């Protein structure tokens, strides 16, 4: 694989994908068991069997040293770097969402900046009564639910952290990204075997369903649930009665005050908002701009590849990108139209009869605060801009738009009082100052990466240590050396 050129990879991907329906909402047209004739390892028809196999993997990894576990992780990083172009292309073709080059970069980020076993640190307490050791132990088999928006990125990132912590893993991936997710599961198992580990360490389903998720949530061998997805699924795992980590939806607001470097802010916001066509939960979703700099900001955004639509066009587009649905409680709610999520800006604009080229990467519009574009997490390159009078109004409206999801917020300013006030008020897991959103997950910003940002349950920027449980060993009255 290492010796293949990008063109050869592209040729293989195209061959494999021929005949498959791009962006199909049905998993039926995608083969979740093999890629280009190579049968995936660790993929099961039955969730109970998948859990039993992951448990055997867990037992095998328990007998390995930390050094041996780290070798598996090094191999996962290597294969992820080598096969990032395949995963990126497959992800876009299968889901119809996102951008190939950005997905490739996301995989490289996962390979380079997801912490391994070095993240697991023991501690000791000594005193008059002797020595107490605190070690971070695995849970056992982790049940992980993964999204369609960052499918293989999440599978690989979760796998590295969970394996570093010494766990086995079973995935119930999003059905709309099953071929891509299972490719990633197979990659982890290939890496594991190549590094001297068990043949099967992480497992997944041929056809994941709500029923298979329910089996996972109640199976006695599953000791920890980790869920990356929208509010519905986070609520479901938190009601399971098991320890659960929930990484839910975001609707990140951006404030731009009149002390910011406006041209840089405009470019940073558009770069972040359009990264993988706005699929990351951390990506900029609505802007609150001081009235006295709003015109300059909008001009800068246009220079950075945005197309501004009118109020009327925004209302027309809102009726297309959001659809009404009656929920279980019989209430009519607006949900995002899956046919628009993660699509290119020109494709979305064409739906209201506006034809632009591929150089347009974002749709911007001025709206009022209550507009659907501000109130809903769209996950597409549409960015509403709301004018505000001052920092009080900006913080008030931005916090309301964020809606207590505790995911991410952004601000462009040089006034440190304004920056601090918003950071304190919004209480998000990630707060990015004067940079594109992706700096918050280690892409052009300091710190490790994750694709599971656990705001609701508080683990934050998850890493190996999030998937451990504390154990204490006490030696009374001995083992001090002073
Ligand atoms: P989704 O919520 O539609 O699906 C996520 C997963 O949950 C899928 O595997 C789906 O099959 C499953 N699922 C849904 N309802 C379920 C239930 N009741 N019981 C069991 N399983 C269920 O998510 P998506 O569209 O793929 O992803 C987008 C959403 O996820 C957005 O809201 C985004 O903000 C969020 N997200 C959050 C993070 C984070 O780190 N916080 C990362 C990625 C995506």
Write the layout of secondary structure elements.
Blueprint: H1 6-17, E1 34-35, E2 38-39, E3 43-44, H2 47-62, H3 66-95, H4 100-113, E4 123-127, E5 130-138, E6 141-146, H5 151-164, E7 168-173, H6 178-194, E8 202-205, H7 210-218, E9 222-228, H8 231-238, E10 244-247, E11 253-256, H9 262-274, E12 286-290, H10 291-303, E13 306-308, H11 311-321, E14 322-326, E15 332-336, H12 345-350, E16 362-366, H13 372-375, E17 382-388, H14 391-402, E18 408-412, H15 416-426, E19 430-433, E20 453-454, E21 460-461, E22 468-476
Parallel strand pairs: 3-8, 6-7, 6-9, 7-8, 9-10, 11-12, 11-18, 12-17, 13-16, 16-17, 18-19
Antiparallel strand pairs: 1-2, 4-5, 5-22, 14-15, 20-21
Bound molecules: nicotinamide-adenine-dinucleotide.
Brief summary of the model shown:
This protein has 482 residues and is of the alpha/beta class. Helices cover 39% and strands 21% of the residues.
Descriptive report:
- It is a single chain.
- With 482 residues, the protein is α/β, with parallel strands linked by helices.
- Helix content is 39%, strand content 21%.
- It contains 15 helices and 22 strands.
- It has helices at residues 6-17, 47-62, 66-95, 100-113, 151-164, 178-194, 210-218, 231-238, 262-274, 291-303, 311-321, 345-350, 372-375, 391-402, 416-426, and strands spanning 34-35, 38-39, 43-44, 123-127, 130-138, 141-146, 168-173, 202-205, 222-228, 244-247, 253-256, 286-290, 306-308, 322-326, 332-336, 362-366, 382-388, 408-412, 430-433, 453-454, 460-461, 468-476.
- The chain has a seven-stranded parallel sheet, sandwiched between helices.
- Helix 15 (416-426) links the parallel strand 18 and strand 19 (430-433).
- Helix 3 (66-95) packs antiparallel against helix 5 (151-164), helix 3 packs antiparallel against helix 6 and helix 9 packs across helix 10 (291-303).
- The chain starts with 5 loop residues before the first helix and ends in a 6-residue tail after the last strand.
- The relative contact order is 0.14.
- Mean pLDDT is 95; it is low at 21-28.
- Bound molecules: nicotinamide-adenine-dinucleotide (NAD).
- Nicotinamide-adenine-dinucleotide (NAD) is lined by residues 145-150, 173-175, 210, 213, 228-230, 232-233, 236, 247-250, 281, 377, 407, 451-453.
């Amino acid at each position: 694989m290492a010796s293949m050129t990008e063109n050869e990879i592209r040729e293989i991907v195209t061959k494999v994908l021929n005949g498959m329906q791009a962006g199909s909402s049905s998993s039926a047209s995608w083969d979740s068991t093999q890629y280009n004739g190579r049968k995936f390892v660790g993929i099961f028809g039955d969730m109970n069997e998948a859990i039993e196999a992951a448990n055997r993997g867990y037992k095998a990894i328990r007998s390995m040293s930390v050094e041996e576990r780290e070798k598996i992780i090094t191999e996962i990083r290597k294969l992820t770097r080598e096969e990032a172009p395949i995963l990126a292309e497959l992800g876009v073709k299968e889901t119809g969402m996102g951008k190939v080059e950005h997905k490739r970069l996301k995989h490289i980020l996962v390979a380079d900046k997801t912490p391994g076993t070095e993240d697991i640190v023991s501690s000791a307490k000594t005193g008059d009564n002797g020595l107490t050791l605190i070690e971070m132990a695995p849970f056992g088999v982790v049940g992980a639910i993964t999204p369609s928006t960052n499918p293989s990125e999440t599978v690989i990132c979760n796998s590295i952290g969970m394996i570093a912590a010494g766990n086995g893993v079973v995935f119930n991936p999003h059905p709309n990204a099953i071929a891509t997710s299972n490719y990633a599961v197979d990659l982890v198992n290939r890496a594991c075997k190549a590094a001297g580990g068990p043949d099967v360490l992480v497992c997944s389903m041929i056809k994941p369903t709500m029923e298979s998720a329910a089996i996972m949530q109640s199976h006695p061998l599953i000791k920890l649930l980790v869920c990356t997805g929208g509010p519905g699924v986070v609520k479901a795992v938190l009601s399971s009665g098991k320890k659960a980590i929930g990484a839910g939806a975001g609707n990140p607001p951006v404030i731009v005050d009149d002390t910011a470097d406006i041209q840089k802010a405009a470019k940073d916001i558009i770069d972040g908002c359009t990264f993988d066509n706005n699929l990351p939960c951390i990506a900029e979703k609505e802007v609150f701009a001081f009235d006295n700099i709003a015109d300059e900001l909008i001009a800068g955004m246009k220079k950075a590849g945005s197309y501004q639509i009118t109020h009327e066009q925004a209302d027309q587009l809102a009726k297309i990108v959001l659809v009404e649905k009656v929920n279980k409680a019989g209430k009519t709610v607006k949900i995002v139209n899956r046919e628009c999520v993660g699509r290119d800006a020109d494709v979305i604009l064409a739906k209201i009869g506006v034809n632009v080229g591929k150089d347009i990467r974002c749709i911007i519009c001025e709206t009022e605060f209550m507009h659907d574009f501000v109130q809903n997490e769209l996950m597409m390159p549409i960015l509403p801009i709301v004018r505000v009078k001052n920092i009080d109004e900006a913080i008030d409206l931005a916090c309301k738009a964020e809606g207590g999801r505790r995911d991410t917020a952004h601000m462009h300013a040089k006034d440190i009082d304004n920056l601090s006030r918003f950071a304190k008020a919004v209480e998000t897991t990630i707060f990015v100052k004067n940079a594109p959103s992706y700096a918050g997950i280690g892409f052009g910003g300091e710190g490790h990466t994750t694709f599971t940002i656990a705001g609701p349950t508080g683990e934050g920027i998850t890493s190996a240590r999030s998937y451990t449980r504390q154990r204490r060993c006490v030696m009374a009255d001995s083992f001090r050396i002073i």
